[in-house]
Design a protein that fits this description.
Elements (H helix, E strand, L loop, with lengths): L1 E9 L6 E4 L1 H11 L4 E7 L4 E7 L2 H14 L19 H10 L2 E7 L2 E2 L5 E7 L6 E9 L1
Length: about 140
């Protein structure tokens, strides 16, 4: 069985944003040489996410609005107890919990085995600093 590991780093200039990382993950699959297996992609930071959805501009805009309604940014310690520790990112932790930590995609015939419209995204909820995504591929 083959095993492949790669870290991909991101630093978004805004506090909340999404990046389609499908092509970078596809490059990892090609480089791994795995023809049949699994590809794990996960955010290695508690205020970032990896998820699968459609790469449609309106949908991504809707996600930003929806997440801000569910867990609005508020740096004050009155709204979120976490911010009483000196942090200002309690909302980002909630947003990550909603959007998820990782995805696993099957690899078939050397390609990511997606359904229609599926793409892999990095979600950033407390940006302006470097964070990493782990790509781990196993298979034959």
């Amino acid at each position: 069985m083959k095993s492949f590991r790669r870290e991909i780093w991101y630093e978004l200039p805004e506090r909340l944003g999404f990046v389609n990382i499908t092509r970078e993950v596809e490059k990892c699959v090609t480089e791994s040489g795995v023809q049949e297996g699994l590809c794990l992609v996960n955010a290695m930071h508690i205020t970032a996410s990896v998820f699968i959805n459609d790469d449609e501009r309106g949908l991504l805009r809707d996600y930003k609005k929806w997440l801000e309604e569910l867990a609005p940014f508020d740096a004050s310690p009155e709204r979120y107890h976490h911010n009483r520790t000196g942090e200002d990112n309690a909302d980002a932790h909630h947003k990550r919990q909603i959007m998820g930590r990782e995805v696993v995609v099957a690899i078939t015939a050397g390609k990511l085995d997606f359904g229609p419209w599926e793409q892999i995204f990095y979600g950033e909820f407390d940006g302006r600093r470097r964070k990493r995504v782990l790509v781990k591929i196993i298979g034959e």
